[in-house]
Write a structure and sequence with these properties.
The chain has 118 residues and is mostly beta strands. The chain is built from no helices and eleven strands.
């Protein structure tokens, strides 16, 4: 059974940093892509960053490019999102997603709340 569990969210002041983690289990992880999304209240879920599991090729959404960094640890089966220069508009629930490229199935974590406020 596939499990994705996010952690690391919390309250941070504007300009601060957080690192989110996504623990992954139940996946072979040899033909998957991983990604981070977020959803603010009253808004659609937004793509933030993606990474290929085998080659670590990354891509970013325009709203976080230059501020957020996605990475993964193949040994620990973890994915991370380093978030710097946080703004109030970054406040949202953050989700990790795994996409099985063989069967085109998506798996989601339960989300972790990030609140940027003074």
């Amino acid at each position: 059974q596939v499990h994705l569990v996010e952690s690391g969210g919390g309250l941070v002041q504007p300009g601060g940093s957080l690192r989110l983690s996504c623990a992954i289990s139940g996946l072979p992880l040899d033909n998957y892509n991983m990604a981070w999304f977020r959803q603010a209240r009253g808004r659609e879920r937004e793509f933030l960053a993606g990474i290929t599991w085998t080659t670590a090729t990354t891509m970013y959404g325009d709203s976080v490019k230059g501020r957020f960094t996605i990475s993964r640890d193949n040994v620990k089966n973890m994915m991370y999102l380093q978030m710097n220069s946080l703004k109030p508009e970054d406040t949202a629930v953050y989700y990790c997603r795994a996409t099985d490229l063989d069967v085109r199935a998506d798996y989601w974590g339960q989300g972790t709340q990030v609140t940027v406020s003074s």
